[in-house]
Structures are given as structure tokens and as C-alpha cells.
Amino acid sequence: MTSSSVELEVTNDLREAMRDCIAGRVHSPVMQTLSSGTKAILKDIAGLQTRAVATLGPPKREGESWWVTRRAIQQSTTLRVAELKATWFGDQPVTDICCGIGGDLIALARRGPATGIDANQSVLSFTAANLVTADVAANLRRMDVMESEPAEVVDGSKWIHIDPDRRADNQRHTQPDAWLPSWERTEQLLGLVEGGLVKMAPATTLDSSVALSCHLMWISSGGSVREQTAIWGTLPTPPEISTDETNWQIGGRSAVVLKHDSAHRFASGSDDGTESAPSTSSVESWMIDPDGAIRAAGLTDHFARRHQAKTLGGPSGFLTADWNATDFENLPCQASIHELATIAKIRDRMSCDDRALRRYFRKAKSYPEIIKVRGGGIDPAKLGKKLRECGETPLALWIGRNGKKTYAVVTDLPQQAPTF
């Protein structure tokens, strides 16, 4: 993230004004010295603080706030994801190229020496202020990565992190050809270092030759897929990406689910994701919904095969399985399956009809506390509101497509550990 429509240098007076603005002291002496345009910018930043804290975490220094813009906060890496990636660099010096307001740079600086590069001086002013807010230190360099020589950008660094600007013309781009720096320049920078990371949108698709030269990892947190990360070369402390503690493979893909203060991983080699899982049109004993990171990584079939499950209506739908206690104990990844997917024991199945659903839940004196939909064009919030009055016992409702038909499955609430 390299550009911003906000042109503002953060000074001590401006920090004081921000504190007044957040506290509602809009007529304080320092606020009176500001232009109407600057006041408007401060009010906008003050209004973004809740969102900034959700993304960057609480300020570490008392009385300070996060200096953000609407565009910047949209592309900034969330704290949990940034902390995960930072661990892969150990305590070695890292250069964060296109550092923006500092989402990744703050995490990198917290674990060791770090340098942030951005082309926009106003952005770097916000970055410097955010380093103060986070109570960490890092070097900052103003540099246009496209105009400067790659060796000058890298400046002897062995490891880099790159977060290309994916909104260069104020539109969101998922493909590398429209990014700044260009993909050609990104590869030039990576060719000068021992290893690095490139942050990408979850929907980005790299050319097959490029994908086979790196490891692609999709990371989810808080129920959303946050980013796709391309891992290049070697890293000081490379991530473990499977339950048997093997490291990532070039040409492979993996999904990381950040949950309960832990990173739960599922991975494939370059050839593991090509074989389709068994498919069925009939619901079995268990319903399974792999985490979004697994789906985004194209690992749904691989996940189904590893867990003795079948795709229901195709790989874009839910999975189903007929596990018994012995089957489950023999699953290769059973210890973490409940962290990688939502799983629930089936109670009943039926056609997806409003009258049938209402009749069922009323008879069971229950309501769907959780509604999961894959296909069918149904709004879970509206349906949940309709069925809430049917009873008091919470259950789960799964709605999906099987060919041209829409089916409904009622299950117990998802379980942390299956019971048989």
C-alpha cells in the first residue's frame, strides 16, 4: 500500500489535536489553530479508531491513537496475521517494501531490526506515528520502488516482505499485472535476496510457472480469509505447515487457520491437490464445512480425502462423512479437524421449504442458532429471523445445492470434539 489521498504531517501539535478530537474537545486551543480541512481529516481518523484497533490491536502507548485512512485500513494486515508472518523471519533484519501505515512493519519491528519503505511521504508520516503508538522502532525510507534500482531498494537485506499496492487506480485488483510495484519488479527484488514474502489478495491467481517457484499459503482469522502469502526462497525460521511438523514445500499450497491463539495448518504438495474426492448425492452421518482458507487454497478435495469424507453436490458444497468412533480415531488429522472445519452430527434431512422447516423446528421446539448456506441464494439472516420464534433449543441448519435441488439438513450445534 503506497499511496493515500491524505496529505498530512503528524507533529506533536497534531497528536495533541487528535487526542482532543477523540475526546470531543473540538474547540480546544490547539484545534482552533487548524484549518477546516485538517479538522475534517482528524475527525475522519478519529471515526476510524474502532476499526483501526480491530485491525492493528490496542495502542501500546497510553494517550496515542492509530493514524489511518479508510483506504489504508482496508489493505492493512491484521495484527494476528502480521505476528504470524513475522515469526518466520526469526530475529533477523527485514525490509518491508511498500510498508504503508505499518501493519506488517510493526510486527516485524517487535521481533527484530526492520526497515520500512514507501513512496509517499505523508504515508510515512503516518507510519512513524504508528510506530510510536505501537511503542516500537524501525528505520523508514522514502523511495519509489519502480523508479529506483532494485539493488538500491534491497540495500543488502537478505529478507524482504512486499505488500504491493493493489488499488493503484482506486480500484481493487487481484491480478499482479495491475499492482505497484509490477510483478516483474517484484520478481527482480526477490531475485536479490535469500527469501521473502509477497502479500496478495486471497483471489489472486499466479501463472502456473510462478506458482511452482514458491509456496502459496492462505491465512484465515476471525472467520475470514485475510490474505494469500507467497513464500519465496528460504526463511530464517520457516513455517511448519502440517501436523507432522514438515516445512512448506516449493510448488505446494497450504491453509492456516488462526484460532484460539494457535495456528492450525493443512497442506498439500505440488501434486496432492489434483485428485478429486469421492462425491455423493446422499447426506451421511456428519456434516463438514472446511474453513475458508482451505477452500480458497483449492484444498477441499484433498481435505475430504484425508478425512474420509465425501463432497456433497461437488467440491464447492459441504462435505459429509459416515464416521464411527474407530474411523475418527484413525483419521490422520483428527486432533485438529475441529479447528480446520465446522463439524456437526446430523439429526434430520429434508427439502428446503419454508413450511417444512417451520413445521420441523416448531415440533422440535427449537430454532436454528447457526445457519450455513452454500448455494441456493438464501439469506441466512432473514431465514433465521423467521424461524427464531419456533422454539428455544438451539440447533444448526445447513442448506446446500445437490444438482438442481436445494436440500436442508438439521444438525446438533457444531462440536469441538465429536461424540458417537
What does the model show?
By secondary structure, this protein is α/β, with parallel strands linked by helices. The chain is built from 17 helices and 17 strands. The protein has helices at residues 12-22, 29-32, 36-47, 49-56, 70-75, 79-87, 103-111, 121-134, 150-154, 183-190, 208-211, 292-296, 300-306, 325-329, 337-340, 354-363, 380-387, and strands at 94-97, 114-118, 139-142, 159-162, 195-200, 215-221, 224-233, 253-259, 262-268, 279-280, 286-290, 310-312, 319-321, 341-351, 366-374, 393-402, 405-411. Strands 3-2-1-4-5-7-6-8-9 form a 9-stranded mixed β-sheet. Strands 10-12-13-11-14-17-16-15 form an 8-stranded mixed β-sheet. A hairpin with a 2-residue loop joins strand 8 and strand 9 (262-268). The longest helix is centred in the first third of the chain and has 14 residues, at 121-134. The termini are far apart. The mean pLDDT is 89.
Class derived from helix and strand content: alpha/beta
Number of helices: 17
Work out the number of β strands.
17
Strand order of the largest sheet: 3-2-1-4-5-7-6-8-9
Radius of gyration: 24 Å
Strand content: 15-25%
Helix content: 25-40%
User: Uncertain spans, ≥5 residues at pLDDT below 50?
Assistant: none
Instruction: Determine the N-to-C terminus distance.
Output: 50 Å
Averaged pLDDT: 89
Largest sheet: 9 strands, mixed
**Global morphology:** globular
